[in-house]
Specification:
alpha+beta, single chain, 5-stranded mixed sheet
């Protein structure tokens, strides 16, 4: 990993355990080494969200509550393995997060993210109309907006 990526991971470890960011099968196989599967853009974006944009606790996976696919998803995850057609998700590429924010609705969080979108060094995509926040860092071909909102 690059020194930059290592520094971002070190900062993220103040807020998140790797089990909050990867599905149980990935954690079982790779443990702490699972940090390697995330793009630097996604890791940096998560850090910006936590420290500079939302500035509140964020909740991704919680294995005890059965919430397991909000970060990196593998081919064994229920949302993936049942697909009969091509399924390309940024979650499978280590480039997306689903989360809730302490003391904020998803719509309030999306609004704050859009207001501070200039802090992200890359384009971001936000899913509309969900009770959680989905953000990813796919550089969308043919779309030049800093924030691209979509419906899955």
């Amino acid at each position: 990993m690059t020194p930059e990526k290592d520094a971002i991971i070190k900062s993220l470890k103040k807020y998140f355990q790797i089990t909050e960011l990867v599905c149980p099968d990935v954690y079982k196989r790779f443990n702490e080494r699972a940090w390697q599967f995330f793009t630097t853009d996604a890791l940096y974006g998560l850090l910006l969200l936590r420290e500079a944009i939302l500035c509140r606790p964020m909740y991704l996976n919680n294995y005890k509550k059965g919430i397991t696919q909000r970060g990196l998803r593998c081919n064994l995850c229920a949302l993936v393995k049942g697909k009969a057609t091509v399924y390309l998700t940024q979650h499978g590429f280590g480039n997306a997060w689903d989360f809730t924010v302490e003391g904020m609705t998803a719509e309030q969080a999306r609004k704050k993210i859009k207001e501070k979108a200039s802090l992200f060094p890359t384009q971001i995509r936000l899913e509309k109309g969900t009770s959680w926040v989905h953000i990813d860092f796919l550089q969308s071909y043919g779309i030049n907006d800093k924030v691209y909102e979509f419906t899955a």
